[in-house]
């Protein structure tokens, strides 16, 4: 009998009230896991379902760290009541809860007051400053998704606690590398109705770039990517989620250099996840349907600064058109294994966000392109096999 079956047979799916938040778990002692079971409850070493949604991973000195959104139960459980959580693991199957890495606070004046939205945290290590640098999507309390800011926190240790530094719009007063004269001379206002062909053309030409030029570009769904030469990039949904921006970070990873590009203008991409394989850069994104899943998109480039080419849906098989009922958040290169990448997605549960599930699937290369297929259960030996 497999371990997960044993676990689920003993599961008490009741909610356990603890420290003011609901947790999903059981009363049984946790057994060691030796495989991934996408979409099932994933218990940490305290037998509680892992609470690190919209997550990102960092591999540092032999340990993986998983950072994600701490969600709570019921409607409203997507706003931040505690902050961003961290787990650690040495094998990627078994995770220890390291607590809240960056806490939201009880101060109504703070940008990260309880009830704000803190999403999709990503942490990278800066070898020069020896700091762990976290960026995440921040929405200010009571403003829905209007603020569209990215926020910075730093720590000297991977598990934190991280110190909150600031939030910002991105690249204020800087045009993208390939800005056209049409963009630069646009007033930022349009006489057309949204979604008309004329409006779409203006969006492609940079309507929103011009509109947000002084304040800085919007930043919602985001990820980070560190290239082999140590240069880091902040990849984010901008222009009302219509266009992705890729912005180079400064050498300390705590600011923007002003070097940035637009990707797929007007293409409506969210949930970016980037990885590099054999000198090619790959990005998997989703379309924009809120918490509902849609079809993933694959893009490829020879440089982070583009051009990026659309390559279709990387998923294959049943439910491929819904990314297996998930949305991308990160793609992890597995340490010590060649050509081994794990696609990480979220199966959101907006009516009870704490119950959100994790869809981790191996990335396969077919005809030199990444492909994702569904497996009910798999383990890292997958990458040792000839496919
Ligand atoms: C999704 C996005 C999530 C969250 C959600 C809010 O499209 O990927 O991170 O922002 O919208 O509706």
Overall 3D shape: globular
Judged by helices, strands and strand pairing, the structural class is mainly beta
CATH superfamily: Glycosyl hydrolase domain, family 43
Separation, N- and C-terminal Cα atoms:
26 Å
- What's the arrangement of strands in the largest beta sheet? 19-23-22-21-20
Question: Radius of gyration, Cα only, in angstroms?
Answer: 20 Å
Number of domains: 1
Question: Could you estimate the helical fraction of the residues in percent?
Answer: under 10%
Strand content: 35-45%
Mean pLDDT: 92
How many strand segments? 23
Q: What assembly state would you assign to the polypeptide chains in this entry?
A: single chain
CATH fold-level topology: Tachylectin-2, Chain A
Describe the protein's architecture and organization.
Mean pLDDT is about 90; it is low at about 1-20. With about 375 residues, the chain is mainly beta. About 5% of the residues lie in helices and about 40% in strands. The two termini are about 25 Å apart. Strand 22 and strand 23 form a beta hairpin. The radius of gyration is 20 Å and the shape is globular. The protein contains four helices and 23 strands. It has one domain: Glycosyl hydrolase domain, family 43 (Tachylectin-2, Chain A). The longest helix is centred in the middle third of the chain and has 9 residues, at about 195-205. It has a five-stranded mixed β-sheet with strand order 19-23-22-21-20, with no helix packed on it. It has helices spanning about 5-10, 180-185, 195-205, 205-210, and strands spanning about 15-20, 20-25, 55-60, 65-70, 85-90, 95-105, 115-125, 130-140, 150-155, 165-170, 220-225, 230-240, 245-250, 255-265, 270-275, 280-285, 295-300, 310, 315, 325-335, 340-345, 355-365, 370-375. Beta-D-galactopyranose binds near residues 54, 119 and 120.
């Amino acid at each position: 009998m497999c371990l997960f079956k044993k676990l689920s047979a003993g599961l008490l799916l009741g909610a356990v009230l603890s420290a003011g938040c609901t947790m999903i778990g059981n009363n049984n002692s946790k057994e060691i896991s030796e495989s991934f079971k996408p979409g099932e409850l994933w218990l940490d070493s305290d037998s509680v379902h892992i609470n690190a949604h919209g997550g990102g991973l960092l591999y540092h000195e032999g340990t993986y760290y998983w950072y994600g959104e701490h969600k709570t139960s019921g409607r409203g459980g997507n706003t931040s009541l505690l902050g961003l959580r961290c787990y650690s693991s040495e094998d990627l199957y078994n995770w220890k809860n390291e607590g809240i890495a960056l806490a939201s606070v009880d101060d109504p004046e703070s940008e990260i007051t309880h009830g704000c939205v803190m999403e999709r945290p990503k942490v990278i290590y800066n070898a020069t400053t020896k700091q762990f640098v976290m960026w995440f999507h921040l929405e200010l309390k009571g403003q829905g998704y209007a603020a569209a800011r990215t926020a910075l926190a730093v720590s000297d240790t991977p598990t934190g606690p991280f110190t909150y530094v600031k939030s910002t719009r991105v690249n204020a007063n800087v045009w993208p590398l390939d800005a056209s004269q049409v963009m630069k001379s646009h007033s930022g206002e349009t006489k057309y109705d949204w979604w008309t062909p004329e409006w779409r053309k203006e969006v492609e030409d940079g309507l929103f770039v011009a509109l947000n030029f002084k304040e800085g570009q919007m930043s919602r769904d985001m990820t980070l990517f560190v290239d082999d030469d140590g240069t880091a990039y902040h990849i984010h949904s901008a222009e009302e989620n219509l266009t992705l921006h890729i912005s180079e970070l400064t050498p300390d990873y705590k600011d923007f250099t002003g070097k940035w590009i637009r990707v797929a203008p007007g293409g409506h991409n969210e949930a970016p996840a980037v990885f590099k394989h054999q000198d090619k850069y790959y990005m998997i994104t989703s379309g924009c349907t809120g918490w509902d899943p849609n079809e993933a998109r694959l893009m490829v480039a020879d440089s982070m600064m583009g051009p990026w080419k659309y390559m279709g849906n990387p998923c294959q098989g049943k439910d491929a058109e819904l990314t297996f009922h998930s949305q991308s958040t990160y793609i992890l290169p597995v340490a010590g294994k060649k050509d081994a990448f794990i696609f990480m997605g979220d199966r959101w549960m907006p009516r009870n966000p704490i119950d959100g599930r994790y869809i981790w699937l191996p990335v396969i290369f077919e005809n030199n392109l990444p492909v994702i297929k569904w497996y009910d259960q798999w383990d890292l030996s997958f990458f040792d096999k000839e496919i």
